UniProtKB/TrEMBL annotation:
E.C. code: 2.3.1.9
Enzyme class, first EC level, given as a word: transferase
PROSITE patterns xrefs: THIOLASE_2 (PS00737)
Membership in a protein family: Belongs to the thiolase-like superfamily. Thiolase family.
Domain Thiolase C-terminal: 260-380
UniProt superkingdom: Bacteria
Keyword terms, alphabetized: Acyltransferase, Transferase
SUPFAM superfamilies referenced in this protein's UniProt entry, alphabetically: Thiolase-like
Domain Thiolase N-terminal: 5-250
Pfam family, one: Thiolase_N
Name of this protein: Acetyl-CoA C-acetyltransferase
Length: 381
């Protein structure tokens, strides 16, 4: 049976909105990560079969196939192609899946899976805003309306619906967010992320964690929706960042003298209610564990994207995972969520944490627009 191995994973620091990475062109940001991946793995870049890059707002400086443009901007060989994909927030986790599937199919041997988003330069919703300015219709046409009506479809409403369904209080959300900041601040202070980060423009550490935040400060914030429970403090941060992972076949490992660091165990994708939008990691995780023949107690480290606090909290309640093993170094509430870059960034964090702690199995999942979720389970080697 064919295997797909992770032989390298690197990321930029995650920059906060208008922070240290905000002036870096997104193509250059992604190029920096690709260059670091090639240098750290020692792979012959001309042998790479494809570069698959996630990016959500493929608009303006992130348009025109940023995967190809970033590879060339990194000074890497022209013979290597690149493609940019959009599975919303899970775009670069899906890039990892496509890369692994190419290797598992036997049609490819070396594939780069990456992701990038500069939310400072290309704000979330840029494509919708541009369409509205030109009088173009929104993504939901007549047949969507026939099925789901004219109700609001948004991540913000989905987060509030989750709070209601799982009876999550504002206090519970804020305690989770506070813990995310404390874990992230500890990880930064202890240097847990140093080996996985390729510094950019003098920025060496993630800019998002707020070690001095308090529950009292959080309680004083206005909710994002009148009468709601979600605030900016219990939401992921608007961020800039990039990550890249190199996936290799057994033949590539042997022929190029590469060192496998983890094995892809299983890859799953699941859809759920698009109105709730953010709930799919729950059924996706159940599906992935069953496919892998594992229980949640077999998983040593979990990275679940903290798009909003109710996402991991509801997941924890339904899956029964150990909170101490879930986002042990904080999540997107503290560290930020650069949309298309987050999947590759989370995989980089997951791999390095397994290596730091000696854990065996790691699981990554994230909610995605349209009510979707990827799950990737890896085994450290």
């Amino acid at each position: 049976m064919a295997e797909a191995y992770i032989v390298g994973a690197v990321r930029t620091p995650v920059g906060k909105k208008k922070g240290g990475l905000s002036a870096v062109h997104p193509t250059d940001l992604a190029a920096h990560t690709l260059q670091a991946l090639v240098e750290r793995t020692g792979v012959d870049p001309s042998a790479v079969d494809d570069v698959i890059m996630g990016c959500v707002m493929q608009f303006g400086p992130q348009s025109m196939d940023i995967a190809r443009n970033a590879w060339l901007s990194a000074g890497l060989p022209e013979n290597v192609a690149g493609v940019t994909i959009d599975r919303q927030c899970g775009s670069s986790q899906q890039a990892i899946h496509f890369a692994a599937q190419g290797v598992l199919s036997g049609t490819q041997d070396l594939v780069v899976a990456a992701g990038v988003e500069s939310m400072s330069i290309v704000p979330m919703g840029s494509t919708i805003t541009a369409a509205l300015e030109k009088g173009m219709p929104l993504p939901f046409g007549d047949r969507w309306v026939e099925r789901y009506g004219t109700q609001e479809i948004s991540q913000f409403r989905g987060a509030e619906l989750m709070c209601e369904k799982w009876d999550l209080s504002r206090d519970e959300l804020e305690r989770f967010a506070y813990e995310s900041h404390q874990r992230a601040a500890k990880a930064v202070a202890n240097g847990y992320f140093k080996e996985q980060i390729a510094p950019v423009n003098g920025v060496e550490d993630d800019e998002g964690p707020r070690p001095d935040t308090t529950l009292e400060k959080m309680a004083g914030l206005k909710t994002l929706r009148e009468g709601g429970r979600i605030t900016a403090a219990t939401s992921s941060q608007i961020s800039d960042g990039s990550g890249a992972v190199l996936i290799a076949s057994e033949r590539a490992v042997r022929e190029h003298g590469l060192v496998p660091r983890a094995r892809i165990v299983t890859l799953t994708l699941t859809g759920d209610d698009p109105v709730y939008m953010l709930t799919a990691p729950i059924p996706a995780t159940k599906k992935a564990l069953a496919k892998a023949g594992l229980g949640i107690d077999d998983i040593d480290v979990v990275e679940i994207n903290e798009a909003f606090a109710p996402v991991p909290l509801a997941w924890l309640k339904e899956i029964g995972a150990d909170p101490a093993r879930t986002n042990p170094n904080g999540g997107a509430i503290a560290l930020g969520h650069p949309l298309g870059g987050t999947g590759a960034i989370l995989m980089t964090k997951l791999l390095h944490e397994l290596e730091r702690t000696g854990g065996r199995y790691g699981l990554q999942t994230m909610c995605e627009g349209g009510g979707q979720a990827n799950v990737t389970i890896i085994e450290r080697l």
